[in-house]
Write a structure and sequence with these properties.
about 120 residues; 4-stranded antiparallel beta sheet; elongated; single chain; mainly beta
Length: about 120
């Protein structure tokens, strides 16, 4: 079993910043990649940013230049630093971890989601 604990969401004014955190624990041997996706009301979930175990990051065009994803491999934790937030960034943000289990199988887990609301 793998558990993901997310934190850092909340209400912020346009132009503000937030940092999301996601800590993974459980039967993980190694992590291949971690990512943040988001889902706004009435819309499909979309990938916002991802980072591989070697530190390669990728971003959706909508967040490029404003969001930064980083990870602490020793703590199995991924962060999403969000700057210059816009009302259209309002969504539930979900953490995802792709990992190798202690039994050698590849698997993935999702966090429970954390709400980010950008509004004045």
């Amino acid at each position: 079993q793998v558990q993901l604990v997310e934190s850092g969401g909340g209400l912020v004014q346009p132009g503000g910043s937030l940092r999301l955190s996601c800590a993974a624990s459980g039967t993980i041997f190694s992590i291949n990649a971690m990512s943040w996706s988001r889902q706004a009301p009435g819309k499909q979930r979309e990938l916002a940013a991802s980072i591989t175990s070697d530190g390669t990051a990728n971003y959706a065009d909508s967040v490029k230049g404003r969001f930064t994803i980083s990870s602490d491999n020793a703590k199995n934790t991924v962060y999403l630093h969000m700057n210059s937030l816009k009302p259209e960034d309002t969504a539930v943000y979900y953490c995802n971890v792709q990992y190798i289990s202690r039994w050698g199988t590849e698997a993935a887990s999702w966090g429970q989601g954390t709400q980010v609301t950008v509004s004045s």
